[in-house]
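note to self — DONT lose this again. spent like an hour looking for the file last time. sequence + predicted structure for the chain T wanted, 152 res
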Amino acid sequence: MTAMPTAIPLPVSDDRLAILAADVHRTYFAKYPPLPVRWGQQISRKRRRTIRLGSYNHLTTEIRIHPLLNSPTIPAYFIQSIIHHEYLHHVLGAPHNRRFRAHERRFIHYRESQEWIRRNLFLLLGRKKEELQPRRGVVARPPAEPVQAALF
């Protein structure tokens, strides 16, 4: 690791994504050629049960980031954690095995990213926080449809 990833808010744009991707590449994957990193296509859905925040296409060697993350309210380190995760798929392959998870934890903001998604998943799913968390004193029934994130 040579440099710290960018942790400051940047303007919302393709430039922001390019800067964040270049920083992740330089810091963690400099010995590999850089991959194209792009925003995915916007799909209009207000409420979801799951969300795929990033993907890696092994045929085109392209990383796509969910367009909902193209917002100034999303921390740069969280977007970088997704880029880092997808680069790991390029380097280590598809399975999320122990080796993959060990490399994933090497990302400098890994814990902060996990905590951010834990606290903000409801926003990305287009739901109110109260819908996902039981109120105090109320016995929670299991939801008819599980709420989850396919993080990467």
